[in-house]
Amino acid sequence: MDAIRHDIILVGGGGAGLRAAIAAVEANPKLSVACVSKLYPMRSHTVSAEGGAAACARDDDSLDLHAYDTLKGSDFLADQDCVEIFVNDAPKELTQLEHWGCPWSREKDGRAAVRFFGGMTVKRTWYATDKTGFHMLHALFQTSLKYDRIVRYDEYFATKILVENGRAVGVAAFDIRTGKMHAVLGRAVILCTGGAGRIFPFTTNASVKTGDGMALAYRAGVGLKDMEFVQYHPTGLPGTGILMTEASRGEGGYLKNNKGERFLVTYDYGVGNKAELGPRDMVSRAEMREFQAGRGFKGPYGDYVHLELMHLGEEKIDKRLPFVRELAKNYVGVDPVWQPIPVRPVVHYMMGGVDTDSHGATEMPGLYAAGECACVSINGANRLGSNSLTECLVFGARSGRAAAQFAAGSSAGSETAALEQGRSEEARLAKLRGKHGGEKIAQIRRELTHAMESGCGVFREEESMRAALDTVVQLKGRYADIGLSDTSQIFNTEVVQALELGNMIDVAEAVVLAAADRRESRGAHTRTDYPTRDDKQWWKHSLVKFAPDGPRLTYKPVVKTRWELEERKY
Amino acid sequence: MELRKVKFEVLRYRPGQDVEPVFETYEVDCMEDWVVLDALNAIKDDIDPTLSHRWSCRMGVCGSCGMLVNGRPVLTCAAFVRNYEGTIRVEPLSNFPVVRDLVVELDSFIEKIRSVKPWIIRKIEKDVSEGEYLQSAAQLEEFKQFSMCINCALCYAACPVLANEPEFVGPAAIALAHRYNLDSRDEGNAERYERLVQGDGVWACSYANECSQVCPKHVDPAMAVNQAKLNTALQWTKILPKRSFT
Predict the structure, then answer these.
(1) Does A53 reside within a domain?
(2) How do residues A71-83 score in pLDDT, each as one tens digit?
């Protein structure tokens, strides 16, 4: 057990994390940043983002319009002050990425190109074909390599936030390769660990999206905000859940039912003339209604609808959507140039996360969070497509700068105290290796994800949510009795999976608890028993806080600046 | 969907427990649309939780799950079980030290990537307030292909030069260096030259073309290496007069 010393301890090396790291060392070159990540940074899930990143860039657009679209998309649950900051920083951040080599697709005049996206009034989504997240992440990773003050701890798994006198001073993390626990000690901590899509069985999310940072913060006593809002993306491949980007529709693709109808146009789903460019929550609901009305196609993985791109032609598909073509061909044997792609709603994104302000600061001094693991909130009850990559950059940079400032003005944590906390984590890890117990990790994970799907799907109601909550609580008990067969110190992925499952259970409990309590329909939270939005009672953020005998649910007000609440119709 | 029983021979090696790597055989009920990675996950979940392998996105873009399947370096998330006959043999990527089971050590790979300075280098950096650098579609096309590398390291496993000369900077790193050299926004060609011209740089490549054969993203690193050789030679002719006469 030893202590590793840096100034800022960053957990997670995806889009938000790397942006935070670079911002911190650029703000103060004297600081050193430890980038602690359970996978090599360029493997992070940012890599899978396809369609683009939103920022006002053209004369027909304005910051106010981007802010309004975002607020309306959020069903007016986003904090208006944070949204204003977000849209203001957005163009600078995307330009910065351009300067760092991101290969943005270009207009004829040489400027970065923009495309349409769901819920956005004008073209404002910057893109690098349909591999935007991949190119952004690699540009960030490669740029980060030039800073000696960013020190990577690749494949280190953080198990606990080190807290001293109520202040975050580091993390306990073990090197997956050696199994050795370290106290990674500094003056500030930034969590950028992404979302938790893996608490659901059918998701676009990578295996690593297990809510680790959310669980770390939660157990340290920091609230999780708006966790009930889980985004279903309307176009995932049945079976695998692989994402077919919204840019498919942004470029003109159609969604059709088994009668060949563009159902978003034929029937009234509230998206008006936006049709396929409606926001994700509404389009996902429309697809589910189509299934209920018997207008879906039947497949081995349930009902689906068709995403048609044929009319765009091969040239446009290859130029704008080559990855969609590659993925559809590889994984469902469909060439979108000639055939429709089967798609269905799939869990994609957590609007909720660690409660932060617009600097990424949490209620715990020294603890920051950014990216999908945080909830600022700019996404409210439903995030607009292409706002999240930008969010990683804007709030990654802001939290990096804020943490740098905080670190410069505060002392390092005590090594003795950190080592003591680290040793207790070391003991916990040792107990877990080869632990005897009657429960299986894979079985509990399966039951957990299925409970989440039945309780917190596209449509929700009291009884199924209560049942899901009971199941999650029961699984938490059973988790204490898991058995592991791998006793090795070396690259023990069974231990990693056990820790991830513990994180998933905590996050899942927060999601279903907040969902069961919110007795209205807003954004992605749609209740059949409370079908309308109720601003009088529910225009507020939920906040779930850890307590030894079970989580506590409270609420906090939404911030309003210049926009009135209105009915969300397109 | 119908299940099919498929035999997998998976190379296992647990340091401290196994004296040497051994093949272990697992019989897995595979679905028609499964990839090799699905089978490995089924083994991990329900047959033998001690198996260690890396994976994440399962859609061929994060680069985590490269392994040898029947001796060939592939992304296991894109290798369909139905395309193999008989027993399927899974091993860790060659030309890398094995950490455990199917997990290899990639530190040297990342260090090689870093060594070619894969970032935009400029004499004077433009301020963000001045907007983006203009780049034509043709200028983007110049380097775009070489920017598609996902760092999966399959090309390092396939490279016959690396098998004998582990210090060789390798196809992915050269392709990346070349990607930046070709970018209209970059002015770092001379700086990268210093690395690429070393004995273990571009000239170590014997043009076996194996890297391009296995590349899952059609980056064609072999072409990048060849172009980089030419570029390096041109750089050398620029530097030569200074070196000879000063």
Answers:
(1) yes
(2) 999 999 999 999 9
A486 touching chain B per CB within 8 A: yes
The mean pLDDT of chain A is 97
Q: Is the pLDDT of residue A32 over 60?
A: yes
**pLDDT value for A534:** 98
Domains of chain B: 3-104 (3.10.20.30), 107-245 (1.10.1060.10)
Full domain range(s) for residue A280 = 234-346
Residue A551 counted as domain residue: no
Q: What distance in Å separates the CA atoms of residue A142 and residue B120, rounded to the nearest whole number?
A: 9
Percent of residues, chain B, with pLDDT higher than 90: 92
Residue in A closest to B125 by C-alpha: A99
**ipTM of the complex, rounded to two decimals:** 0.97
Tell me which of B35, B47, B56 to substitute to probe the interface with A (most A C-beta atoms closer than 10 Å): B56
What gap in Å lies between CA A329 and CA A11, rounded to an integer?
A: 36
CB atoms within 10 A of CB A537: 9
Range B76-91 average pLDDT: 97
The helix (H) or strand (E) run that includes residue A213 is helix A212-219
Q: In terms of pTM, does the model score above 0.80? A: yes
pLDDT in tens, A310-323: 999 999 999 999 99
Both structure tokens of B219 = 């980056």
Q: How many residues appear in chain B?
A: 246
pLDDT at B243 over 70: no
- Which of A389, A420, A451 finishes a domain? A420
Cross-chain residue pair A206–B52, CB shorter than 8 Å? no
SS (H, E, C) A396-433: HHHHHHHHHHHHHCCCCCCHHHHHHHHHHHHHHHHHHC
pLDDT tier for residue A328 given thresholds of 50, 70 and 90: very high
Q: Is B194 on the interface with A (CB under 8 A)?
A: no
The answer to whether B99 faces chain A, any CB pair under 8 Å, is yes
CATH number at residue A119: 3.50.50.60
Decide which of A398, A420, A442 is a domain's last residue. Answer: A420
Interatomic CA distance for residues A325 and B227, integer angstroms: 29
B159 three-class SS: coil
Instruction: Work out the burial of residue A293: count CB atoms within 10 Å of its CB; fewer than 13 is exposed, 13-18 middle, 19 or more buried.
Output: exposed
| Those residues with Cβ within 8 angstroms of residue A373's Cβ, 6 or more apart along the chain or in another chain | A12, A16, A191, A192, A193, A194, A195, A211, A213, A214, A353, A354
Which chain B residues contact residue A134 at CB under 8 A?
61, 150
A12 found inside a domain: yes
Do the domain assignments include residue A208? yes
Q: Give the integer Cα–Cα distance in Å for A384 and B228.
A: 42
Task: Tell which residue, B151, B231, B167, B163, has the closest CA to residue B201.
Answer: B167
Listed in sequence order, the residues at least 6 apart from B136 whose beta carbon sits closer than 8 Å to its beta carbon are: A106, A110, B184
